[in-house]
Write a structure and sequence with these properties.
Elements: H1 2-25, E1 31-36, H2 43-57, E2 62-67, H3 76-85, E3 92-96, H4 99-106, H5 115-120, H6 129-134, E4 136-137, E5 140-141, E6 144-145, E7 147-150, E8 153-157, H7 158-163, H8 172-184, E9 188-191, H9 198-212, H10 214-222, H11 230-243, H12 255-263, E10 267-271, H13 275-282, E11 291-295, E12 302-306, E13 308-311, H14 319-330, H15 332-342, E14 345-346, H16 358-369, E15 371-374, H17 384-400, H18 403-417
Parallel strand pairs: 1-2, 1-3, 9-10, 12-15
Antiparallel strand pairs: 3-13, 4-5, 6-13, 7-12, 7-14, 8-10, 8-11
Helix pairs in contact: 2-15, 9-10, 9-11, 11-18, 17-18
The chain binds beta-D-galactopyranose.
Residues 37-38, 43, 71-73, 96, 149, 255, 275, 306, 308, 378 line the site of beta-D-galactopyranose.
Length: 420
């Protein structure tokens, strides 16, 4: 009798365990939840191009496009953190290559290594070594990069520049000369949309790069260059001067709203990553005809880089299907469909160059010859905790413009977080 009872109990336990795993893992379901912040013009269409490839290959899978609007992940990252901490990760999520991935999610032990995928698909030979390094920790690879974006680009309205016989500014001094002419003509020189504070950090990181040069800029992230040094204080003063030439409603505007001001001729220029190129194209503008580009003032010869990638969180509900998505992300076909629309260059080195326009070809050339530096606002240079602190200091700085205070607080954050 006792034996019988034991057997019944054991069977019951087994059934319960199986039921638990069946519900918890959802591995039987044909679904894929892809989490990102790509909702604006250019980025949404780029994602759609990859979705189409995936669905062609996996017609029976329900694709859940889980986006949280807000440039640079300003809202998405908080939602993601809540989900990850609450034990309900999406199947895969957008994450910047570099310290946003390694210093945050990998350190937390939340990601699955993907070496097997790189080996199976022979990706080790098509991804640049430098890209593999920034997505790796202890020889384990943690995400699949889909692109390389450039942060330090100045975009300008060609009609306005032609009308006033202006050349796009190469240096910070040139910028102020051009800005003065435009302001005298009643045109707001620079469009800024920092309703997500990252856009102010984005502008400042490129002023820092222009003012300090690539080597000192890199030193800011390793602790070699102090944030309260005379160089950084001078860059902060330059930043204040630049802010004197931006649209008065910048705090209410998004990055794509600022790009739209350039299209509409309300402003003449904007400093934004090359997803703005994707935006302009999505709005029907012709690159080189309606708008032009230049490395942001003072940064010729430097490529401020970031990379969007997708990772596989531990306990992804539909792990096998997520791996199929990651396979599309890493494929030549996936990247050649996505990047010409997104405004980025492929992370792979074997792209079909015929598919890329004049701007993107110039970006490919610059990426292979310029000094590469990591973007802060887009997760390449610093872990999320440090970037969040930088944004906090920036929010107050944009309002108060207190150079000494900001330099002190930036340095305090660097002392705590710098990547030694
Ligand atoms: C960046 C991201 C880009 C683009 C941009 C604006 O952080 O890497 O792909 O989406 O934000 O949302």
């Amino acid at each position: 009798m006792r034996k019988m009872l034991g057997l019944v109990l054991l069977c019951g336990l087994l059934v319960l365990t199986l039921a638990f795993y069946a519900c918890g893992s959802k591995q039987g379901e044909k679904k894929l939840e892809v989490f990102s912040w790509w909702t604006a013009g250019g980025e949404a269409e780029g994602l759609e191009a990859m979705r189409k490839i995936f669905i062609n290959q996996n017609p029976d899978v329900e694709f859940i496009n889980a986006t949280v609007a807000g440039g640079a992940g300003s809202n998405a990252q908080a939602v993601l953190a809540t989900r990850m901490q609450g034990g309900s990760p999406p199947d895969t999520f957008q994450v910047h290559a570099g310290l946003e991935l390694i210093g945050s999610w990998v350190v937390a032990g939340a990601m699955e290594p993907l070496n097997f995928l790189f080996e199976e698909n022979d990706w080790m030979s098509v991804y640049p070594q430098g890209v593999i390094e920034i997505i790796s920790q202890d020889h384990k690879i943690y995400s699949v990069p889909v692109n390389i974006h450039r942060s330090n680009v100045l975009w300008y309205n060609k009609a306005i520049f032609n009308k006033f016989g202006l050349d796009p500014p190469e240096t910070l001094d040139d910028f102020f000369t051009v800005a003065e002419v435009l302001a005298d003509e009643g045109i707001t020189p620079l469009a800024l949309g920092d309703n997500g504070i990252w856009a102010a950090t984005h502008l400042f990181e490129n002023i820092l790069l222009g003012a300090l040069g690539p080597e000192k800029y890199k030193g800011l992230w390793t602790g070699k260059v102090k944030w309260d040094s005379a160089d950084v204080k001078a860059a902060l003063k330059t930043f204040v001067k630049v802010l004197g030439y931006v649209n008065t409603d910048h705090a209410a505007l998004s990055w794509d709203g600022a790009a739209q001001y350039v299209i509409d001729g309300k402003c003449a220029m904007t400093v934004m990553g090359d997803w703005a190129h994707g935006y302009f194209k999505a709005k029907g503008l012709k690159p080189g005809v309606d708008y032009g580009w230049m490395p942001s003032p003072g940064t010729i010869g430097a490529f401020n880089m970031l990379s969007d990638s997708f990772g596989l969180p531990k306990n992804a509900p539909h792990r096998k299907i997520a791996i199929k998505w990651l396979t599309v992300c890493g494929s030549k076909a996936g990247q050649d469909a996505f990047n010409p629309i997104k405004g980025s260059i492929p992370a792979r080195t074997d792209a079909d160059r015929n598919l890329y326009d004049a701007y993107l070809l110039s970006a490919m050339n610059d990426f292979s010859s310029d000094t590469i530096v990591p973007s802060c606002a887009h997760g390449a240079a610093a872990a999320q905790s440090w970037v969040t602190k930088i944004h906090d200091v920036m929010s107050i700085f944009v309002a108060e413009k207190d150079v000494e205070k900001a330099a002190r607080e930036f340095q305090a954050a660097a002392s705590r977080f710098a990547n030694k």
